Amino acid sequence: MMSIEIEAWVRMAAFVGAGFSMGFGAIGAAIGEGFAAAKANNAISQNPTYSGDIVKMMLVGQAIAETAAIFALVIGVLLLFATGGNASMITAAGLFGAGLSMGLGAIGSGVGSGFPAGEACDGLARQPALSRTLTTTMLIGSAVSQTPAIFSMVIAFMLMFINFSGGSPHMVAALLGSGLCMGFGAIGSGIGSGFPAGQACVGLARQPAMGSRLTTNMLIGAAVSQTPAIFAMVVSFMLMFISFAGTPVHPTSAALLGAGLATGLAAIGSGVGSGLAAGAGVEGWARQPMATGNVLVIMLVGQAVSQTPSIFGLLISFILIFKGYPSTEVFIVSTALVSAGLCTGLGGIGSGVGNGQVAQTAVSWVGRNVEQEALLMRTMLVGQAVSQSTAIYAMVISLALIFLV
Amino acid sequence: MEPHEQIRQTQKKYCSIAMLAAISVALILIFAGYKPLGKGLVLGTVFSSLNFILMGETLPRRISGSRRRASVVSGVSIFIRYALLAAPLILAIKSPSFNLAATVVGLFMIQIMILATQGIYASTRKNLDY
């Protein structure tokens, strides 16, 4: 009787995971494809003579932007037919976590891939002779934007196919936390990677001679924008593979779930913020080819500071994972630990985006007025420090929840 | 060239390259004794091509007419295309004669070919085309 109940839980977890995977997974690709189509309409109205080429560019761009949703579809269908192997609550948590990881993780990449597709259509209307170069730049940018979704798919496959069922009871929360961490953690980086990719297409149409250098800067900017997703993947791996046997199930399980939420949510803002700075960097290169070094330096500094909220999230995750807890069945303690993760995670979103906005304008203006680089750098850092304070408040509350409750 | 003709040409180009690549690899796999792998790859590629064709065929309806009509057409198009993409996966899960991993790879064959052809073009061109 009990085993039938467990099997039912496993099936339910797989079905709900499948729903989340495809449901969330469709959001980003639809937005990205919509952005590409909107930009194509804009481009066709500007240059109707090349409507055929613009529509072709849009179709190819949309096909690539759809990749993240197809990842989600694959995971969703696999979950529908998952047998679960050794039926246990750990297996159920793994399947549910896989759906969350893939569904949430596909959102950012779907949106981000749409930016280069749309901007390439706009660029084609401006510079029809650059059709092939624009297509190449667009495809490189779209492919790079898919990376966070690929991270999510890797974690989803691991959660589905590695047999964790022999693990300690903590694994239920750990696998759920792992899926949430990677899913949320991929959103910002996916969107953020799209900004430099889109700006590379805009810049190429404005400054064709800078083509290869714009692609280089796009790749540097996108790579840095994907750091928060890598933080999330690291925490996901830790939650999957660190053994918590010997530690009390309560409240350690709550701490593990909180750890996943802290890094995953905090990575959203940092990913978007870093992407905004990277996009401005690419724009700056196209606008002022002589100032590439200055633009690159301020872009990287701006991106580094925008990453701070995700580092706070990582720090809280590490504390939650590695701090020992005395055994207690008191629900308040478990609630406090999950809240600690949520607090730093949610508190880091706005701060990461805000820091990115500050960096975006500073980088953009260095491209326009390189003589004021030092002043812009100082202003950027002061502005970022102030907008960082909200994430620090959140971290302080999280630390209080961990150490004082 | 008219937009519709451009779309047709693009579809023909990538679908034919994808099918050719899939069939070539599948033949090698079948002769090497990996029949389910070869069959899975071709199955996935057929549906990947169908998805790309449907995507192109609905384009004129998705970017013309009223916003409401375009939204409805886009929504229905996505639903039908994703249901179509789920079919080979379900078939590969249910039937041992199709390898699931190869079917998944086949589903991405159009995207792989788009990136591959552009990659080859980018690595062989000598100058920017402006």
Automatic annotation (TrEMBL), chain A:
Query: Major place of localization?
Result: membrane
Gene that produces this protein: atpE
Q: Which Gene Ontology terms of cellular component type are present?
A: plasma membrane; proton-transporting ATP synthase complex; proton-transporting two-sector ATPase complex, proton-transporting domain
Alphabetically list the UniProt keywords: ATP synthesis, Cell membrane, CF(0), Hydrogen ion transport, Ion transport, Lipid-binding, Membrane, Transmembrane, Transmembrane helix, Transport
Task: Supply the name of the protein.
Answer: ATP synthase subunit c
> What region holds the V-ATPase proteolipid subunit C-like domain?
16-79, 96-159, 176-239, 257-320, 339-400
GO terms (molecular function) for this protein are:
lipid binding; proton-transporting ATP synthase activity, rotational mechanism
Q: Does the keyword Acyltransferase apply?
A: no
Automatic annotation (TrEMBL), chain B:
Q: Name one GO cellular component term.
A: plasma membrane
Query: Which superkingdom is the protein from?
Result: Bacteria
Membrane-spanning parts? 14-34, 40-59, 71-93, 99-121
Tell where it localizes: Cell membrane
Report how it sits in the membrane.
Answer: Multi-pass membrane protein
Alphabetized, the UniProt keywords read:
Cell membrane, Membrane, Transmembrane, Transmembrane helix
What's the protein called, per UniProt?
ATP synthase I subunit
Which organism is the protein's source? Desulfosalsimonas propionicica
